[in-house]
Amino acid sequence: MGLFGLGKKPGLGIDIGTDAIKAVEIVPQGDTYEIIRVAESQLPKNLITDDEITDIDKVARALKQTKKALGTRALDVVSSVSGSQAISKQIAVALELDDDAISEKIETEAEALIPYPLAEVRYDFESLGEHPTMPGQQRVLVTATRTMSVDSRVQALEEAGFKVRIMDVDNQAILRACDHVMPHLYPDLYDNKLPLLVLDISGAAVQMIVIGGGEVMYTRYQSGGLGALLGALDNEGELDHGELFAKLRADETEEFSPLVLQDFLGNLWSQISRGMQIYRSNATKKDFAGIVLVNSGAMLPMIANMLGEQVEYPVISLNPFEHFPLPSKYQHLEAHGPRFVEALGLALRSFTEWHT
């Protein structure tokens, strides 16, 4: 894979989700960035099951559609695997160690760090700076995932004509986007000393990500997501889920069974509150500055309203397009910004170094 993206080269991030592919292309602009292209392509059902691609050729065809819709000449891409497939651990190493020495240390201690044979995994690492309590040491974040999880996505992207420079992890991409956008949109919330609870609610799962100090402090994955709601509303399988989602997004719920909506919201809160309890059982800071909603769930008013009734701190839906104005031809996607948070974080990853 190797170094890529430094200088004026555009950064292209592609998020291969369970229901759609989202792409964001950015270029440096002064001390920030400018979005120049975005695209979204829907995926047929069951092409990605349990975060694994079941039909690489069909995903590759969808990626080709995304590439055509973008109209970009950029081929270098950053994509991601699900954090449910990745293992991240922090280790302390001497400050003077360079990348080669850190890599050698990781491989020497791989058995203790990674619960798979090193030949079956791909790993990356980054320094988090000097250790706050261990003088002369630095903290290093090591992230590893099974090779097959990476290879299927790389193969699909390469069949579509892209060159994969790095496979990130979804929660790290979401953290990166939050760290870039929130100081501009919600500075008081971002500057709070308490961590933020990010809820990534997709069609297939609910991911809880606690972030603070530029780090992912906790993650928890549970299957379910909006697919359970759409399936319950379409119990005979004859309705268009896109149309159902559009009505929910517009808060036009009069025609839907209140019991179905209440059951979904109740189950969702049970998942979230259980995850919060598990986090708090081991955390020193047990409360949150606020809840940040991303992905498709952030576009449904009833979810934000439900959470606002359950907690005493702010609940926001993060739309990065409120900070990064879209080119005029993409204005129709402005309200879809919460779905592009991860893709933006991947594009931003293009402008930092990584390791093979």
From TrEMBL:
Any single biological process term in GO: cell division
Tree of life domain: Bacteria
InterPro entries in UniProt: ATPase_NBD, FtsA/MreB, PilM, SHS2_FtsA
SHS2 domain span: 11-178
Ranges that cross the membrane: none
PANTHER family assigned to the protein according to its UniProt record, in alphabetical order: CELL DIVISION PROTEIN FTSA-RELATED (PTHR32432), ETHANOLAMINE UTILIZATION PROTEIN EUTJ (PTHR32432:SF3)
Name of this protein: SHS2 domain-containing protein
